[in-house]
Amino acid sequence: MTSTSLNKLIQRSYLRSVLVPLLIVESALVGMYFTVVFLITDQQMALALKQATENLKTITQQQAKQLDLNIQEVSRNASQLQQQFNYLFQTRPHANEVDVDEGYRFHDNGALYRPQPTNGSAFYYSTLHGLDQQSLIRAKWSEQMEPLLKGITDTNPIIAQSYFNSWDSMVRLYPPVDNLPELFGAVMDIRQQPFYYLADAQHNPQRTSVWTQAYFDPLGMGWIITAMAPVYSAQRLEGVAGIDVSIAELAVQVIESELPWQASSLLLDKQGNILAIDPDINATLGVEVVAGQEFAGLMQKSVERKSEFDLLSFRSDPIKQFFSGFLSQNQTLQALDIDNKRYLVLGASVPSTQWHVIAMVDESNLYSEALTTEAKTIRIGFLAIGALALFYMLFIYFAKRRSRTLSKKIAEPIQALSRLTSDIEANNEFQPVATGINELDQLQENFKVMTTQLNERQQHLLESKLEGRVQQERANLMKQLSETDSLTSLSNRRKLDDILASEIGRASRYDTPLSIILADIDHFKRVNDKHGHLKGDEVISRVAQLLKHHTRETDTVGRWGGEEFLLICPGIEQQSATELAEKIREMIAAEKQNGDIAVTASFGVSQYRQQDTVDSLVSRADKALYNSKQSGRNQVSAAQ
């Protein structure tokens, strides 16, 4: 142990007694200060998250509700067109009652059209079924639809166009589009288009207004959806009244909304395809804006080949998987991690179309105010720590000066006494042999005698312990030799009897299953006769190792006698023991002994029954083993 001077000891003790409590108190106060700062910040962040979640959820629900109202309004408009057109076809005049003017022309490709629709609707008639004078009369008569189409389209700002498509590919369209024959071609079967066949009798037997999925309009209006209503004359489908709704006009209600916390919006259809997206999150989601595509000749393609109608999807698989799960599970709130940033994703469903209005906000935007306040408070805390450090430097300086004065007052008398003691020891003439104190002298003598006695007793104890340990090891070795088979190192017949009797007692007391397996090496006498007893001993040793390595730790494997082995398997029933025996039998049969000696074994299995003894239990297993031998060996038999 290193000694120190009394002077330094007093100084250190004084400084510790003064500074340590003060340092602990100040550290606790500083720790409490920063803890309170962090707790308040966490509460502010939790409150900000809750407010943002509630507000954005309300906004997305309102947007979805407004979209749904607009979609429902268009559905009602489609139903109005359906009712009016049904009436027109029911009151259609005879051919001689219709005057045909010269406003219609045959295009160079043979299609009938109106070259200058002016304020009326555009018109197109395919040559699919041939065109004649009746076609001109039908075209003229269909002008009665123009006021209906114009009125519906002009009164609803989200409607891009309204039209009627007849079964024989006559199209009347408002607002008009120039030169429909060049766009549609001479022959166009309108019945193959999604904005027709989805409303026919096969797909819409209820004859109600139905909607298409979003697709890219071949007339240049971008992504649209169509509300369709079948028009019947009696039981005949005359055609389909359709209203196209521009998704861009609908999306204005979502994308151009000023969302708080710099949140962004996007509109997804029910398959997860992007219908509209805020440009601020294009790069975040890895999406490119679709624009400027041309679809010349699109109307002539079959429905199955219109890959151009596929909408643009997310480019990143993790993001795609996130939104797929978000939509399929109909979630309204989840968190999405992108590029080490966490985004809060909220959604609301549009019931009419099963679209989803999605709002995304960077969580750091929600916490900016709380984090700014936290940063300011932390700066104040560090300034306070700096002031405390300066205070401690001055305090330690004055405390050291005070400790020197105090230690000098206390240590000087003791140091004088120490010098006096040193002088006495340095005096050669003064060489005391005894202390002169009876108690101290007797204590020294007693300690010397005690030390001698302890050493003697310790030596005697060590010798006694060594002798006892040698005897115990000898006894253990003799016991092990008496219970272990010398050839296989397994338990011998005597040990197996003891273990089996103990396991039978346990099985009887606790009503637990107990099974045994009796194994015998097949034709072992032939091995001895052909290869010698030394090789036979090797076979027995190898089989013993296989049995030991392929049983459980709780099982006991022993040599029952000669080439017979006994396996004691507590805790399992006869069926499981039979399966274990079969597994061991296969392994023995598959094992090649040294010198390529093929060895097999037969097995008998029995399970403990109430009132069983060691002899009765082993007897049943022996009978089962005998059955295996009689059945051709290399088999497993269970006791009956």
Describe this structure as you would to a colleague:
The protein has 640 residues and is α+β, with helices and mostly antiparallel strands. It has helices at 6-90, 133-141, 146-155, 180-184, 194-197, 247-255, 282-285, 317-328, 363-366, 368-426, 438-483, 493-510, 524-531, 533-549, 574-590, 614-630; strands spanning 105-106, 112-113, 122-125, 159-166, 170-174, 210-211, 215-217, 222-233, 236-246, 264-268, 274-277, 333-338, 341-350, 355-362, 514-521, 556-561, 564-570, 592-593, 597-598, 601-607, 636-638. The strands form four sheets. Strands 1, 2, 3, 4, 5, 6, 7, 8 and 9 form a nine-stranded antiparallel beta sheet that branches. It has a five-stranded antiparallel beta sheet with strand order 11-10-14-13-12. Strands 16-17-15-20-21 form a five-stranded mixed beta sheet, with helices on both faces. The two termini are 80 Å apart. Mean pLDDT is 78; it is low at 290-312 and 423-433.
Give the helix/strand layout.
Layout: H1 6-90, E1 105-106, E2 112-113, E3 122-125, H2 133-141, H3 146-155, E4 159-166, E5 170-174, H4 180-184, H5 194-197, E6 210-211, E7 215-217, E8 222-233, E9 236-246, H6 247-255, E10 264-268, E11 274-277, H7 282-285, H8 317-328, E12 333-338, E13 341-350, E14 355-362, H9 363-366, H10 368-426, H11 438-483, H12 493-510, E15 514-521, H13 524-531, H14 533-549, E16 556-561, E17 564-570, H15 574-590, E18 592-593, E19 597-598, E20 601-607, H16 614-630, E21 636-638
Helix pairs in contact: 1-10, 13-14
